[in-house]
Every structure is written in structure tokens, then in C-alpha cells.
Design brief:
25% helix; seven-stranded antiparallel β-sheet; single chain; globular; alpha+beta
């Protein structure tokens, strides 16, 4: 009998807590599950960790429930696409251990259920193709449909893909089933472009792929329709179909229906007035920050009623306007910490804020330990904060005096990306999409933001003043904005630019003027451009 090591027995409370914090930092949309049932969605739930008395204690709570457990082991399992942190837990007063699982994937289904659903969908879709349920497809034949994962080419099992063939003519086809998340459905165009490019490359002249047909669940095509309007019609034909799996009916979306992804413009706060309003409270917070560190603290006005204090994009304190408990009088509240650990600042706990700041500055600095959870936490926000201070680091023609974050905001949607909006010296708007890690959807997520900015800029000018929506909402004061479409900047570390990005960019409409900016991997110390690629330099498909 071969002896095996119990890795969990070697874990100290500090190691367990570090694994938990690192997992939640890397997967902010994780869920906590027990026996297959989701107990908490960490986007809204709160948690606390303590390692006192040589024990790691975890508390998680939400409006529905509260769970307190001692954790004796934390083991990470699964592939990069299905990460799971399995916790060995103990109820206080009970000897028998239990298990909690932190799932990185938003998809609550088990891997077995997911696989069965995808295989069933593939069979239904292929049957639809073979029967020729759509008169437009006639006697075209379905060929090579599959859902197999191919990580080398970025194809995941959520997408069924194949070809429709008629003689030497062919269409690349990709579909996704109705049980997948909206985010997976929205990703179909990126994967579809990669599939089309793959089919054309492997056809070797035997087949002529004239276009791409996308098949999405009925009622889930809005974002994809919006994106299709800005694909290059000369590079490919593009068709979008909605599929009802219950009735097995296919219906083509009108090419003129560009979708309507809702965005809104938020009134820009009066920064001078807000800073004057919060001056006393801000001075109190900054007095607790060591003098040598004060110059790197960013005091960000979030609205007329809130100012936040950030270190390299990570918020550690804030001041908010609110109402007193016994009247409608407005009062300012200073808090520090984040999430479950957010604490009102009092005279008695000012020392805790000093310790928090000192610990944060020691661990989240340009020369920090790269494996430290605080160093790695929220890298996009670190990059965003750096460029917000000096956006000319990526292009000297940009205006460092006018840089805004996430304007317009996507209504009821958190895309997990950070966007900056600026202008160049000619008054032309510049949309800047950031990513600190590789993401194959970078190009189309940048396009989403570009489309919305363009729409708000060019539509609904004021009849009397001639001002567009941005300036009517307080942005770009004193600047004459050019009427042309925005420029699109896609920014990522050079080794994190996903190979799919350039493939997708080649299929965008020539009307989208883009620049792909690769920066040095040591951007935390200084942002340096390694290389740039522009739409004007790229050979069209």
C-alpha cells in the first residue's frame, strides 16, 4: 500500500485564510454552495475571516442567512474554467466535519448536467439543420457539428459549432443553448469570428466560406445584434438567428435590428464643490496616512455625496453624506475597510485605520510581493488609477485634464471591465478599454463601449446651445468636441493580449478606428508602451 500525504493537515489558519482571500479576489462573482445548493452569491453577500486562537473562522452572511464555520482545510480543484475551493468545515460544538464549496463559475449547474444539456442541444440543432426547417437554408447539409473543447484555439464546450455545406459553398455556424448564462450567450460573436477564421484557414480552397451564422436562444440576442451592426460586411456575410429549443423553430433577426443595450449618462459631480464639502472629513482621513504615503493616495469624487480614498485603485476609506437617525438633517459618515469589514471611523478606532493603511501600503506597492493577495487584488483598478493620473502614457495626443471612468454606465450590468473616456488634442472622444489579464472578448467589449459613447455623442444635440449629451451632463467643460466618431483604444500588458483580439479586430467595420496598445508587464512601476497596432495599419480581410 502506497502512503499518501494529507496536504490539508499541513495548512495553518493563516494559509487557509490566505487561500480564501486569494480565491475571492480572483473570482469576485463566486458563489458558496453546500451539497449542490447555492447558499451565497459573493457579489452581494458579506464575509469575515479571523485566525485567532490557532483557528480559521469564517462567517458569511446575507439578508437570507448567516453561516459561521471553523475551516480546517482549503483545497483548490478543477480546471481553469471550473475552479472550486473546497473547504473542510466544522460547526462549533460538533465533531463531524462538513464541506463548503466556493465555485468560481457563475453557472450553478454540475459539470455532468452542463455536459448533458450541451450534448442534447447539439443533437437538436443538428436535427434542425438536417431537416431543413428553415426554407432559407434549403438542401444545405450539416457537417462536422461538435462541442469538444479546444483550448489551443479558444473553443469551449458551451458552443456548438460546425458547417453548412452546399457543393463548394459553406457557412460557418455556431450556436449556444438556452441554459447557458447571458454572458456566455453574449460571447458567441467572438467565438463565431474565431470559428469562421478557423474554417477558412482549414478549407484550403476546397470550400468557400461566405459567412457566419450565429444561433442564440430566443430573447437573448440583444447585445449580439448590437455588435453585428459594426462588423465588416465586405469581410463576411453575417446572419443572426434565434432558436426556440422547445418548438425547434428558427427565426432570423432583421439585419436592421441593431439591438438596444441600455446605457445612461450620470450627471458629472461638481468636483470643486464636493472637495470643499468634504474638506474637513478628508483631512481627518489623510492625517492618519503617513506623510510619505500621502502623495500616492487618490481622493476620488464618486458623486456629490461621496468621496473615496484609494491606493492604486483599491479603496480603503470613504466619506458619505447621509441622514441622521432622528431627523432629515444631512450628516457625513467616515468609514474604512471594505465589504464585510467596513467600519465607521471613531476616535477610539483611529489606530485601526492607521494599521490598515500601513499594512496596505507595505503590501500593495510597486515593489510588493507578487504572490501577496493585496498586491494581486483588482489589477484593472490599479491600471485604471495609473492611467487616470496620466493617460498620455499610452498616447501623447490624449488630454490628461479630461479623463472619466465608465461614462456612460451600462444599465443593470457589470461587465467586469473598466472603461475610461477622454479626448485627444483635436477634441475627438477617445474610448479606452483596459484589461490587466488576457481576455478573448477584449475587442468586442471595447466595441460595446465605443458604440454607446458614439450614440450619446452624436444623437440628441440641444437645439439652443448645440451641446451634445456629454457636455449637457457636465463632462468636458470648456472643450469644443469634434463631431466625428470616437477613437477606440484597447490596452493590456503585452503578454496578456489574447491572440483572439487581433483576429476579431480584423473583422470589425472600417468605421471603427481602433488602436491596440500593449504595455510593459511592469506597468505597476511605470506604464511604457511596448508596441501599438492601428486599424489603419492592418490589412482588411
Amino acid at each position: 500500500m502506497i502512503a499518501t500525504r494529507d496536504l490539508s493537515a499541513e495548512q495553518t489558519p493563516e494559509v487557509i485564510a490566505s487561500k480564501l482571500e486569494a480565491f475571492l479576489a480572483e473570482h469576485p462573482n463566486a458563489v458558496v454552495a453546500q451539497d449542490g445548493k447555492v447558499l451565497f452569491d459573493m457579489r452581494t453577500a458579506k464575509y469575515s475571516l479571523t485566525t485567532e486562537h490557532r483557528r480559521c473562522a469564517l462567517q458569511v452572511w446575507s439578508e437570507e442567512r448567516n453561516v459561521v464555520r471553523r475551516v480546517s482545510a482549503a483545497i483548490e480543484r478543477g480546471s481553469a474554467l471550473d475552479r472550486i475551493l473546497r473547504l473542510t468545515t466544522h460547526r462549533f460544538g460538533q465533531a463531524r466535519p462538513g464541506t463548503l464549496e466556493l465555485l468560481a463559475d457563475k453557472d450553478r449547474r454540475t459539470p455532468t448536467t452542463r455536459e448533458a444539456t450541451r450534448v442534447r442541444y447539439l443533437r437538436v440543432l443538428e436535427r434542425v439543420m438536417l431537416r431543413g426547417l428553415s426554407q432559407d437554408w434549403g438542401d444545405w447539409k450539416a457537417d462536422g457539428f461538435r462541442t469538444a473543447m479546444d483550448l489551443e484555439k479558444s473553443f469551449g464546450p458551451a458552443y456548438a459549432r460546425g458547417s453548412l455545406v452546399h457543393g463548394q459553398q459553406a457557412w460557418a455556424v455556431i450556436g449556444v443553448n438556452e441554459a447557458e448564462s447571458q454572458a456566455t450567450v453574449d460571447g458567441i460573436l467572438t467565438l463565431g469570428v474565431l470559428w469562421l477564421a478557423h474554417c477558412r484557414e482549414n478549407a484550403a480552397g476546397r470550400r468557400l466560406y461566405c459567412g457566419l451564422r450565429l444561433i442564440v436562444p430566443r430573447g437573448m440576442a440583444t447585445l449580439t445584434a448590437s455588435r453585428l451592426a459594426w462588423m465588416n460586411a465586405e469581410a463576411s456575410q453575417w446572419e443572426l438567428w434565434e432558436f426556440d429549443e422547445k418548438t425547434e423553430e428558427l427565426e432570423q433577426r432583421d439585419a436592421a435590428d441593431h439591438g438596444n443595450v441600455s446605457t445612461r449618462l450620470i450627471q458629472a459631480p461638481n468636483e470643486a464643490a464636493a472637495r470643499e464639502r468634504f474638506a474637513q472629513a478628508a483631512a481627518r482621513v489623510m492625517a492618519l496616512v503617513p506623510e510619505a504615503m500621502r502623495e500616492v493616495v487618490e481622493q476620488k469624487i464618486r458623486s456629490g455625496t461621496e468621496i473615496a480614498f484609494l491606493l492604486h485603485g483599491l479603496e480603503f476609506a470613504r466619506v458619505r453624506m447621509g441622514y441622521t437617525g432622528e431627523s432629515f438633517n444631512r450628516a457625513q459618515e467616515v468609514t474604512f475597510g471594505a465589504g464585510a469589514n467596513e467600519t465607521p471611523l471613531t476616535e477610539d478606532n483611529e489606530g485601526e485605520l492607521r494599521e490598515l493603511v500601513a499594512r496596505l501600503f507595505a503590501r500593495r506597492s510597486e515593489s510588493g510581493e507578487k504572490r501577496d493577495v493585496l498586491y494581486r487584488m483588482q489589477p484593472e483598478r490599479w491600471l485604471e488609477s495609473t492611467l487616470r493620473r496620466d493617460v498620455t502614457a499610452i498616447d501623447a495626443h490624449l488630454d490628461a485634464a479630461h479623463v472619466y471612468t465608465q461614462v456612460p454606465a451600462f444599465a443593470a450590468s457589470d461587465r467586469g471591465m473598466l472603461d475610461l473616456l477622454s479626448i485627444d488634442r483635436d477634441g475627438r472622444l477617445a474610448v479606452i478599454e483596459l484589461k490587466a489579464d488576457d481576455d478573448l472578448h477584449l475587442a468586442l467589449q471595447g466595441l460595446d463601449y465605443w458604440v454607446r459613447v458614439r450614440s450619446h455623442h452624436q444623437q440628441n444635440p440641444d437645439r439652443n446651445s448645440g451641446l451634445g449629451e456629454f457636455q449637457r451632463h457636465g463632462y468636458f467643460g470648456g472643450v469644443r468636441l469634434a463631431q466625428g466618431a470616437p477613437r477606440l483604444y484597447l490596452v493590456a500588458p503585452a503578454l496578456r493580449v489574447h491572440p483572439a483580439t487581433e483576429v476579431v479586430l480584423r473583422y470589425l467595420s472600417p468605421l471603427v478606428e481602433w488602436t491596440l496598445v500593449a504595455i510593459d508587464e511592469r506597468w505597476r512601476k511605470q506604464v511604457k508602451v511596448v508596441w501599438r497596432k492601428r486599424s489603419s495599419d492592418t490589412q482588411r480581410i
